[in-house]
Each structure stands twice: as structure tokens, then as C-alpha cells.
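Q: I'm building a small set of examples for a reading group on sequence design. Run inverse folding on the following structure and report the sequence directly after it, with nothing in between.
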């Protein structure tokens, strides 16, 4: 049976890996929509190669270029945030959510309302609106499959198990670019230094978030939101080799570890073929050659992001949206050279305190309120960055 698929964020790191897996079996898929940002040439090439029905750029000012690049191909072209959500209205059996940031939430929610299977790489939508996302899936008989490597690993560890028998979940962290740096060097870490990951090849934003451990902070919240596991039962563990992706601990003391190469095509391919397992073009590990796997506790003093994630999980409500919005905006500030590496966590903490104090964080959990919490967090973050510079 030919499956209808759409890929949101097809030009990114996860998106390109997804396109690669689909392109390898052209007869098995009918590509409905591909979406990207300013990388018009790449989006146009993917759309041609996969013979997509529709190509959407998130930016209105890229419309003309995309239209020109796809002239005569029969691929329909659209632009803008609304066009992204419209693209998610088109019936598809499987949708990859691989936009980076909270911008991935509206198309994901729309796809779920159509009862589709949503492969979720966009962790920000679980952090900002996990409850809404999971409830929408439930209400419409849709399925959400985690594509983050750790969460795919936990998901696989739970196949055939009773969630009530789970005592704890451990997600691993490489430790990021600065894991072996002395504390005093961190404040002056540059953008280039933060943008290079020791083990994984990923988009720039998640790579920097790995260096600050904000990525792991988001993933703790993601674990809580997706699996409904109590925050006290979720642990982060530094594992520099990035081969064990997660472990599920059961009430009888057993720990089930998921081990595999640091290659996102595994988690993407697992979600693509679920509930089956199919051949995937990833390296096979030679454990005898690897010899040893090492683990250590993360330093929560050095990486306040982990502590902040625990506070967010405890507070619940819209605090996840505030946390993520502030983090995205502080990251923009670091990328633009306006603030230093350590300022990001300081500012996010400040914003969390301010916004959760000044607003009605217990407000009803609707998309409008999530969007408002996100907007407010970004605005307060921008003010703080401005005042630090001035
Ligand atoms: P990336 O930066 O490489 O790609 C992001 C994609 O989103 C691109 O197609 C870009 O055009 C699009 N995009 C960016 N901003 C947008 C906006 N405002 N509106 C619409 N589209 C926009 O990112 P990535 O590394 O592929 O990560 C994608 C998502 O997957 C993120 O949520 C990330 O946390 C998650 N993730 C990535 C990896 C990885 O290995 N790269 C692993 C686990 C989870
Ligand atoms: Mg991950």
C-alpha cells in the first residue's frame, strides 16, 4: 500500500534524513507536502526528487524564488505560517514534525486533528503544549511517535511492558561541546565552539542546546509529557560515547538499555516503519571493539538548565511554554552575539520567575494561552537582553 507522507522542516537535519529514507523507496510513498525555510534551492530539489504535491516555505518573501525554482514541475507552491498549517490539513498517513522551535506546534496539532500518525522530532511542541498535543491525539484517534533518540529508545524499551511497572527512566546526555572544559572558560565560549557537537551531526540550535544542556532539560520535560512519568522518576546521565540512548528501570530492578550508533536515521526509521522493524542503513556496533561505555552524573550546578527543567515540571501549566520561549529567545541572543554562553541560563531563570509571577499561569491550557505565554516570555527575554546591553 502506498503511504501518503508529509515532512515539516524537510530541509533541516532531521528533515533531510527523513527525505533520504523515503527517497530510497520511491514506490512506497506518495509525498503530499514538504516544508522549509529560506533554503529554497534545497526545498525545490527535494520537492522535484520526491515529486511532492506541495512545497511550502515559512517565509513570505521566499515565495517568488520557490515558485521560480519549481516552475513547470507541477509542484504547488505556498508561503507563510498559515500555509504551513494549511499544508497540515492535507490528508496524510504519516507526518514528520521536524521544524525547530515552537513554530512546529500549529502544524503538528493540525495533523493530529486529522487522525494521522505524527512522528515527533519537534520536542518544543511537547515542552510548550504537551498536554494539548497528547489530548488532541487521543481525541482524534491519532498516534504520536517520539523521534528524539532518547525517547524513541524509551518507547522501544516499553514495547510489551506495563507502564505501571516502570520505576524510573534514565535518558543519557553526551555532555555536549564543553563537557571537558574547566568552569572558568565557559563564560567566554564562542558561537563556533558551541556549534560543534562531539558525537551527533544536528542543526545548529540543538547543537548549542546540547552544549548548555538545555537540550537535555527540554528532553526531561519531553519524557514527562510524553510518557506521563513522574518527574522524580526521570534522570539524566552523562554518557560521553552517545551509544546508550536511554534506559528503562522496572520495579524488579531490571534496567533495559537501548544501544545503537548516534544516527538519527534509526529513530526516524523506527517511527516510519512502526510497529514493524525494517532494515535501516545505519552502522552496526561492534561492542568488542568499542570495549567500554562510561557514565557519570551531570553537574547540575554547572548546568542550571536541568534544575530549571525540574522546576518547570513541578510548576506545570504554561510554565513549559514560558521556559521554551525564553530559551529560544536567549539562544537567538547568543547566536547574534548579544549575550554570552552562560547568560542564557541566567536569563531564562529570570524570565521564568518574572512571567510566572506576573501572569495567570494556571490559565486554561488552550493553544491561545500557550501562544500568549510564549509571546510574553520572548518579550520579557528581549527586554532583559536589551537592558543588559544598554
Ligand atoms: P534544523 O535547524 O536542521 O532544521 C529545522 C527545519 O525547520 C528546517 O527545515 C527549517 O527551514 C525549518 N524552520 C526553522 N524555523 C522555522 C519556522 N519558524 N517556521 C517554519 N519552519 C522553520 O533542525 P534539526 O536539527 O533538524 O531539528 C529539528 C527538530 O528536531 C528540533 O525540534 C530538534 O530539537 C529536534 N531533534 C533534532 C535532532 C537532530 O539530530 N538534528 C535530534 C533530536 C531532536
Ligand atoms: Mg535527543
Amino acid at each position: 500500500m502506498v503511504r501518503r507522507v508529509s515532512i515539516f522542516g524537510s530541509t533541516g537535519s532531521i528533515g533531510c534524513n527523513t527525505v533520504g529514507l523515503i527517497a530510497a523507496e520511491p514506490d512506497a510513498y506518495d509525498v503530499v507536502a514538504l516544508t522549509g525555510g529560506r533554503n529554497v534551492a534545497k526545498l525545490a530539489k527535494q520537492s522535484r526528487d520526491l515529486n511532492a504535491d506541495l512545497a511550502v516555505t515559512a517565509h513570505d518573501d521566499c515565495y517568488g524564488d520557490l515558485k521560480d525554482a519549481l516552475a513547470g514541475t507541477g509542484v504547488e507552491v505556498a508561503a507563510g505560517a498559515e500555509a504551513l498549517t494549511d499544508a497540515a490539513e492535507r490528508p496524510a498517513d504519516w507526518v514528520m514534525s521536524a521544524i525547530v522551535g515552537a513554530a512546529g506546534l500549529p502544524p503538528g496539532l493540525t495533523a493530529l486533528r486529522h487522525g494521522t500518525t505524527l512522528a515527533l522530532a519537534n520536542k518544543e511542541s511537547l515542552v510548550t503544549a504537551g498536554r494539548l498535543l497528547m489530548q488532541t491525539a487521543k481525541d482524534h484517534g491519532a498516534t504520536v511517535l517520539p523521534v528524539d533518540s532518547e525517547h524513541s529508545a524509551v518507547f522501544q524499551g516499553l514495547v510489551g511492558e506495563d507502564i505501571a511497572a516502570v520505576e524510573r527512566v534514565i535518558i543519557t546526555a553526551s555532555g555536549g561541546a564543553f563537557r571537558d572544559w574547566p568552569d572558568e572558560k565557559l563564560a567566554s565560549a564562542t558561537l563556533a565552539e558551541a556549534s560543534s557537537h562531539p558525537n551527533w551531526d544536528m542543526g545548529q540550535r540543538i547543537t548549542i542546546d546540547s552544549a548548555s544542556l538545555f537540550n537535555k532539560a527540554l528532553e526531561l520535560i519531553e519524557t514527562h509529557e510524553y510518557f506521563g512519568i513522574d518527574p522524580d522518576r526521570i534522570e539524566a546521565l552523562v554518557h560521553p560515547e552517545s551509544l546508550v540512548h536511554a534506559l528503562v528501570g522496572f520495579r524488579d530492578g531490571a534496567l533495559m538499555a537501548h544501544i545503537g550508533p548516534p544516527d538519527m536515521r534509526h529513530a526516524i526509521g523506527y517511527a516510519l516503519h512502526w510497529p514493524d522493524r525494517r532494515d535501516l542503513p545505519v552502522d552496526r556496533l561492534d561492542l568488542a571493539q568499542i570495549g567500554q561505555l562510561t557514565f557519570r552524573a551531570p553537574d547540575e550546578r554547572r548546568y542550571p538548565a536541568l534544575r530549571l527543567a525540574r522546576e518547570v515540571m513541578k510548576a506545570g501549566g504554561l510554565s513549559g511554554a514560558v521556559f521554551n520561549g525564553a530559551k529560544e529567545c536567549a539562544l537567538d541572543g547568543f547566536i547574534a552575539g548579544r549575550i554570552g554562553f552562560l547568560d542564557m541560563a541566567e536569563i531564562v531563570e529570570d524570565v521564568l520567575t518574572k512571567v510566572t509571577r506576573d501572569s495567570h499561569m494556571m490559565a486554561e491550557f488552550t493553544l491561545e494561552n500557550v501562544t500568549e505565554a510564549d509571546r510574553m516570555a520572548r518579550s520579557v527575554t528581549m527586554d532583559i537582553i536589551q537592558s543588559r546591553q544598554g
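The chain has two domains: 3-146, 148-261+284-300.
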